[in-house]
Specification:
The protein has 18 helices and 13 strands. Helix 1 crosses helix 2, helix 10 packs across helix 11 (200-212) and helix 13 runs parallel beside helix 15. Helix 3 links the parallel strand 2 (43-48) and strand 3 (75-80). The protein has 404 residues and is an alpha/beta fold. The longest helix has 17 residues, at 172-188. 35% of the residues are buried. It has a six-stranded mixed sheet with strand order 1-6-5-2-3-4, sandwiched between helices. A five-stranded mixed sheet has the order 7-13-12-9-10, with no helix packed on it. The chain is globular and about 75 Å long.
Length: 404
Amino acid sequence: MAHDFLPVDEQLARIKRGAEDVFPEDELRKKLEKSRATGTPLRVKLGVDPTAPDLTLGNAVPLWKLRTFQDLGHVAVLIIGDYTAQVGDPSGRNSLRPMLTAEDVAAHAQTYIDQLDRILLKERLEIRRNGEWFAAMNFMEVMQLAGRMTVAQMLERDDFNKRYTSQQPISVHEFLYPLMQGWDSVVIRSDVELGGSDQRFNLIVGRDMQRSDGQAPQAIVINPLVPGTDGVIKMSKSKGNYVGVTEAPSEQFGKCMSVPDTMLRPWLTCFTDVDEAQIDALCNGDKTHPRDAKEAMAKGVVTRYWGAAAADEAAAGFRRVFAQGKLPDDMPELTIPAGGLPLVEILTSETLAFAKSRGEARRLVKQGGVKIDDVKQDDAEAIIDPTDEVVLKVGKRRFAKLVR
């Protein structure tokens, strides 16, 4: 054989970890059996639309599932949706999503690609942009694509149906999105496609389009939409309830420690590599204190992206600050010139980057989240001119030294 694949039952067990659904499971089993018999890896597709810069732990869930397939010896086909992102995925939305510019999409896509090494293996990875085939389509071909489904079929989608019955506008271009995602599967001849639970309709469209083009339809692995740090709604940068893949270990750890206890099992399952037996033990409240379980989860998240040593250091730093009331040892330092600097400039400085914009900096101050030597600041434009070293605190977990 060209590749020694694990027994199918073992492969399925790893694929199904944390998955909301695998369907049709019997078809996936047959694909894995054939792959093992012939030594031919499956082509496993994941489409990502770079609609915002950077990745969150939620964004990374299907990427880690793609990594699982790579570890099992299969080929990951990552579709960068540079064309679908401009249309905007209407899945799960109750309002029209504005179309993005090609420039915005290209900039966001690069941040995604730059972060892939944290998750995916370069070997057995194929990266494609769906602009490769959509940019080459003429108008007649677009009409032929649109003719593959009826409006009635589109309105079977729950989100479209709700918007239609509540008289919320649906733009014609939104109907193209499921067709475009489905056509991606035809072009790259995927054996399996991964997606979130809000993608079910689109993934089935891909199966239908492959079947109509004489291909074996792809099997589907559905991943859950895990709530963010608030424990209520899907993790989202726009909602502020996210943990970023590239955030510093201390920031990742602190955010993880803030989540409700009810999120322990889904976060451990979807955001860490902690084995399932240990997860069961950690989530057994009779044997493990919720705080200890939460710390294990936070360390699991940091370990996945930064390594075990960084996780241990983040845990020690958290205990030092929150349990012992001490300052962290690794605070960044900003030198303030003679005459001082406005607080808003300090917060947005390249050295600290506690706020990405002046507007965000003003909001932090207005919300009472900025302190200097434990004194709450209420004026974002105030000139900060320390005569000696002072400590800037932003929120609960970010600290810096301001020095002359």
